[in-house]
Amino acid sequence: MTLHLKNITLPIVEDEALEKTPSPPQIEFCSVTKMYGAVAAVKDLSLAVRRGEFLTILGPSGSGKTTVLMLLAGFVAPTEGDILIAGKSVGSVPSYRRDQGIVFQSYALFPHLTVRRNLEFPLEMRGMKAAQRATHVDRMLERVDLKDFGSRMPSQLSGGQQQRVALARALIADPPFLLLDEPLGALDRNLREQMQGELKSLHREFGKTTICVTHDQEEALTLSDRIVVMRAGEIEQTDTPEALYDRPRTRFVANFLGEANILENPGFKVESDATRPSGTVPMIRPERIYIAAATAPKRADADQRQFVTGIVEDMIYAGPLRKYYVRAGSSVLIVREHVAAGQQIFRSGDEVRLEWLRCDVRFVTA
Ligand SMILES: Nc1ncnc2c1ncn2[C@@H]1O[C@H](COP(=O)(O)OP(=O)(O)OP(=O)(O)O)[C@@H](O)[C@H]1O
Ligand SMILES: [Mg+2]
Q1: Domains of the chain, with CATH numbers?
Q2: Which ligand is nearest to the CA of 37?
Q3: 61 close to ligand 1 (CB < 6 Angstrom)
Q4: Strands 280-284, 290-293: parallel, antiparallel or unpaired by DSSP?
Q5: What are the pLDDT digits (tens) for 182-235?
């Protein structure tokens, strides 16, 4: 379609076509390897991060998460491969010229400077005039709810308050992207959840591309647009939180993100609507299994379900959840049930019937 204006002919780009044009990645790892002696901390890693994306790197200790951030920040150089920022190789750009906001686990606030001076520091480094710095700092202190704390020393703040100062300091100079290494690692559970909300709202407001390292799976699921699961220096799977949890490709991912019943030789035939790809084992999440008395009437959609009988080995009450361990065939299945009024509670030794929809069975590589 074209639009004619006097002598000028302009092509009209349909909205739909615009939406289909993917924006170029802001950050790209191209087959990056980092060796420490004979140990590959990161192995042939390729990853593209979109502008504005909140990407979380999740993985067990020693899997290479911090090394990925160090490479991007320029604190260590790749042994092989290249890193591009906005399409340009940054191999030869020193870390102090890379301009990113960084928050490491230990906050790393300057202990001898007040909160205000901590926030002013990155602005001063960029040569901003005092009056302008003051306005920026005021605005940021207000944003992180620390308006009256500017003259305190970091040691006079709680963990959560220090964390907010660290985030504010990372954001204040408007870096092109944020690197967060276990930013909430030092906080207790309640504060951690509160700060997760804060991180999310800061991300929404500032729209900064953020790469966040954590080994807390719940945190990763809550915060991220996409999650990268790392294992021994390599990417095991990259996906949205929902896809990663609901359709893990490997047994490692299934087990690392939540609990999984891996039905490898379970002692009963596992039924499924899909054919099982070779080299895979069936898996079902504990919350997809229903537990009922062995004699309870079946539901109307019984033809879409698999039923197995079992004996309860243990029941664990965890506030809003009840977790059952049920021996069925030659395996022990974990069942997770939300506590609700009128539910029948089973005890160890009870005979029960487990059931699940056949379409809830997944296949993961062994
Ligand atoms: N400076 C170094 N010298 C030698 N080996 C290193 C160095 N830094 C990291 N490693 C090794 O590289 C691997 C990856 O380390 P990295 O710090 O990236 O792991 P991580 O995923 O961040 O772990 P954690 O969750 O414990 O912080 C580990 O085996 C580690 O021992
Ligand atoms: Mg680390």
Answers
A1: 27-253 (3.40.50.300), 261-365 (2.40.50.140)
A2: 1
A3: yes
A4: unpaired
A5: 888 777 788 788 888 888 888 988 888 999 998 888 899 989 999 999 999 999
